[in-house]
Amino acid sequence: MLIKSQQDIPASEITDEKLYLNRREFIRGVSSIATAPALVGCSPESEGSASDEELTPYKDITGYCNFYEFGTGKEDPTRYAQDFVTKPWKVTIDGHVNKPGDYDLDDLLKPYTMEERIYRMRCVEAWSMVIPWLGFPLKDLIARVEPTSKANYVAFTTLFDPEQMPGQNRDVLDWPYREGLRMDEANHPLTILATGLYGKELPPQNGAPLRLVVPWKYGFKGIKSIVRISFVEHQPKTSWNMMAPHEYGFYANVNPEVDHPRWSQARERRIGEFRKRPTLPFNGYADEVSDLYSGMDLRKYY
Q1: N or C end of the chain: which has fewer CB within 10 A?
Q2: Per residue in 49-86, is it b (16+ CB within 10 Å) or e — as a string?
Q3: By residue range, what is the domain housing residue 236?
């Protein structure tokens, strides 16, 4: 299981990084489970999916990070998060649900085999990467805790522990970090709770042991080290929207036609590439998710 220490994971459960880097071998290796609900973006017939693109090397994913709880520099999380304690880990589920409580991460992962936790997704912040995540659909957890009819949004909260997270001793943001999704966004099969990458448990600098991945939104929606998931009636406050509401909206959908007030969002830089490339609407997942926003003014609801 991904929540075990690295030395406790049998070699048979760790996918060799060379297989991930070789697209054809990777797809062949998972073709037998192509119908599994957790296997997203891995079908070779899926036009425009992240499976058509070269994976970002592990060292870049784990060495160039945004995780302000450990510092604002891109190398700070790798430098300061290595002693971060992630075991044991509990997630509090509360709000408008029939089954609230403190859930152990081990128990949340038990229904899934390693193969059922493979996702390959394109992710965008100020730069972009293609990451082979390990995780499970958020909608599975939602079904498990049984939200009531009053649950219109899902709110997430990061651990607050300034002793372990030195960045929380600075007033860069109003800690703890908070994020949120509309219920239909949270129930979309592309929305996952990630617990690892490249067949290994999630490194501390990447949000261990549990983080949100919503691949059609900008990276700041991917809240890390989650300790609370709340089902609420009204749109929850989110960290960057509170910090700079004129720059960061609640939705954070990738929209190349709407510039950030301080820079253009029409082009993005893929890690490892010198030239920028055009940014794709909804980060290339428009066919899958654009219907969620039918009739909405995406310049207003940014």
Answers
A1: N
A2: bbbbbebbbbeebbbbbbbbbbbeeeebbbebbeebeb
A3: 6-293
Please check whether residue 302 lies inside any domain of the structure.
no
Q: Are 186 and 142 in contact (CB under 8 A)?
A: yes
Domain contains 108? yes
* Cβ-proximal residues to 31 (8 Å cutoff; 6+ apart), any chain: none
Higher-scoring residue by pLDDT: 50, 262: 262
Q: Which two tokens stand for residue 97?
A: 């649900």
CA distance 178 to 155: 7
Backbone angles phi, psi at 226, to 5 degrees: -70, 130
Q: Are strands 127-137 and 118-124 parallel, antiparallel or unpaired?
A: antiparallel
pLDDT tens by residue, 269-282 = 999 888 999 999 99
Q: What is the CATH number of the domain that holds 256?
A: 3.90.420.10
How confident is the model over 108-128, as pLDDT tens digits?
A: 998 888 777 788 888 877 689
Residue 293 token pair: 């926003």
Task: Give the C-alpha separation, 176 to 160, whole Å.
Answer: 5
299 within some domain: no
Closest CA relative to residue 114, chosen from 14, 5, 254: 14
State the Cα–Cα distance between residues 168 and 187, nearest whole angstrom. 31
**Rounded-to-integer distance, Cα 155 and Cα 176, Å:** 12
Give pLDDT, residue 298.
Answer: 94
| Structural domain contains residue 180 | yes
pTM of the model: 0.85
How many domains does the structure of the chain reveal?
1
